[in-house]
Amino acid sequence: MIASIFDLMAPVLIAALGGVITERAGILNIALEGLMLIGAFTAIVVAGFSGSIILGLLAAATASAGAAAVFGFFSVRLQANIFIAGLAVNLLATGLVTFLSGQFFSTRGVIRIANMPSLPHIPFPTGGTITPAPLVGLLLVPLLIYLLNQTPFGLRVRAAGIDPEVLKGRGVAPGSVQFQAITLSGLFCGLAGAFLSLRLEAFVPGITAGKGWIALVAVFLGRKSPVGILLASWLFAFADAVAGNAQGLSWLPPTLMLAFPYLITFLVLIGASALMSRRKHAERKT
């Protein structure tokens, strides 16, 4: 079960790490779900026809980064409402994937491609195997910490979110930095979506199943810290694994088990919000 938790954790973790990049730049990226969906579809198509997992991952990252750039163009360059632009990406991603499925695969259901390459499986210390996805996610945590805190790009991203005037004073356009952050976030989401579909070796309608939204919750539950996001993602994956294992129990309603991870997400978010409100209230009193 522990091995499966890590595999379930990886897509949420990687997408959430992408989400924290834009959040540090002062942009709430609610398009994570749609960007993951684009990555999942692209990965299966490219990996299936090329026979290469690597090409599938690269294509997924590129496609989602491109979609994120379009989102950034409208939300940053044209100053469109960030919520409307993000929701538009989510809706358009669903529509686009459905259209392409019908046009090229004559189905709006499950897409399986003959001779689809498989992700390698790595033995896990406690038993079972994992795909490379958790290792990629875990590797991205320290890399992102370094990127955001030790590089000029990371410092510009943080300045764009905290005090854009500092960037303007140095001749750097805050909008340009935010646009770059959104595009990089899309790359992360593309990888997250790719690992979702490549693990199944198929594209399934609704494959993201709200994981982009859960990733957004993980950003805030983890207090916009890569390490905190890692812990939050593991918690959600644990709930998902428990729900999956409990579906075989006849005395538990299957619908309840399907909703269990989202219920846990909701309760944790409410609890975290209440705790933060109490802390702020206590600070005001002192």
UniProtKB/TrEMBL annotation:
Pfam families: BPD_transp_2. One of its GO terms (cellular component) is plasma membrane. Keywords: Cell membrane, Membrane, Transmembrane, Transmembrane helix. It is a multi-pass membrane protein. The chain crosses the membrane at residues 27-47, 53-76, 83-106, 126-148, 177-196, 202-221, 228-246, 258-276. InterPro entries: ABC_transp_permease (IPR001851). The keyword Membrane applies. GO terms for molecular function: transmembrane transporter activity. The keyword Transferase does not apply. Its main location: membrane. It is found in: Cell membrane. This is Inner-membrane translocator. It comes from Sediminispirochaeta smaragdinae (strain DSM 11293 / JCM 15392 / SEBR 4228). The lineage of its organism: Bacteria, Pseudomonadati, Spirochaetota, Spirochaetia, Spirochaetales.
